Amino acid sequence: MDDNNKLMTAKEEFEHFSDIEKFDYEAMFPAKGGMVEALRGRVWDFPTMTPEKVNKISERMVEIDRANQTLGRSETQTSNQMMTLTMLSDSPYRRLRQCLTQIERRRQSIEITYWASLKQKKELEQWKKEDTEETRLALAEHYYMEERQMPYIEGALKEIGIFQEAYEEIRKNNNIPEDWDEEDAELDEIRHHLRQAFRQAHRDMTLTGSITQGNAEYLEQYGIHLQTARNFIAKYIATCEKMLEEGVVPNITHLYEFLDNCVEVFGNEFRHVLKHIGLDGIIKKDYLYRSQRDLGDIGKGTGQKKEEPKTGK
Fold first, then answer.
1. pLDDT tens readout for residues 236-293
2. Residues 91 and 173: beta-carbon distance below 8 Å
3. CA spacing 20 to 30 A to 235: which of 90, 121, 181, 278?
4. Kindly report the CA angle at 62 between 58 and 67, in degrees rounded to 5?
5. Using CA atoms, how far apart are residues 147 and 119, in angstroms rounded to an integer?
6. What is the number of alpha carbons within 13 Å of residue 284 lying toward its C-beta?
7. What is the pLDDT of residues 89-111, one digit of tens each?
8. Rounded CA gap, 215 and 193, in Å?
9. Half-sphere exposure (Cβ direction) of 146: Cα atoms closer than 13 Å
10. What span, in angstroms and rounded, lies between the C-alpha atoms of 263 and 35?
């Protein structure tokens, strides 16, 4: 639907309750140019903006209104998927949850607009019955602003669609079942925190030569001895430096593989911290949303759900 058709919809609504001769809708809000175009039919004593300048702005508003259809959302698809979904996240479950959070925010925004519109209907009906110059102006303003909101409502719907598709792609490409639950996400948290702690510590050592206090505490919280971590990272940095000297450029996958190795080497160190604190396990399964799959013994063993028993043909 183009802008002209959208405006006609508002005009038809307006005509439903008011004689158009009493209140010239087209004169107030022309099909092209909107409020700026309306200025052309009014006498304004601007000291700088002469009628010629206003006309020029009005003519350009046609393209501006078209280009405004690219707005309505705060970020581009690229920023949402390459930055929002990777920021402080090394777990596919965290990225799924981020998608859900982003979808919920846009959904709430649309719901607020929807319910506000329904609540205002009674007031609009009253304005129509009164049919005074003041209420006709109020109605015209309402329908005009309603049209102006459309790109932003549509923008929210676009972002919901983008994050829904991202959600499905992340889930499928990480072999996550459709009925994943809160417990699945919890089981992946140790892996996430180990990767993130080593990533941040690697940044520290690459940039400053030492691990900062905050990241030292982060490592210790998950059972990693600071000097062990420093030595482990130093060896990786030395490997990268040697590669660069030989003309081989390590890419980001090289870093991901290093972080995976950190999880393999230090993946069970957190259990020493649990023992020191006096905890039997991390996950309290009675207080999590869980799917109907067999969950097995969670929190004390390997942290993996039991596999479905295989049946013979």
1. 999 999 999 999 999 999 999 999 999 999 999 999 999 999 999 888 888 888 886 6
2. no
3. 90
4. 130
5. 18
6. 2
7. 678 998 888 888 888 988 888 88
8. 11
9. 21
10. 60
- Residue 38 phi/psi, 5-degree rounding, is -65, -30
- Distance, CA of 108 to CA of 198 (rounded, Å): 36
Q: In the block, which residue shows the tokens 């639907």?
A: 1
Contact 99, 171 (CB under 8 A): no
Res. 312: pLDDT tops 60? no
Report yes or no on whether pTM surpasses 0.85: no
- pLDDT value of position 14: 45
Per the structure block, which two tokens stand in for 148?
């102006």
The residues near 99 (Cβ < 8 Å, ≥ 6 apart) are: 85, 163, 164, 166, 167, 170
154: exposed, middle or buried (Cβ count in 10 Å: 0-12, 13-18, 19+): middle
**pLDDT (tens digit per residue) in 42-54:** 545 667 767 777 6
Domain segments of the chain: what residues? 12-18+74-173, 182-287
222, 273 contact by CB (below 8 A): yes
Rounded average pLDDT over 200-220: 96
Tokens 């992340």 found at = 170
156 pLDDT higher than 90:
no
- Rounded to the nearest 10 degrees, how much is the dihedral formed by the CA atoms of 48, 49, 53, 59? 160
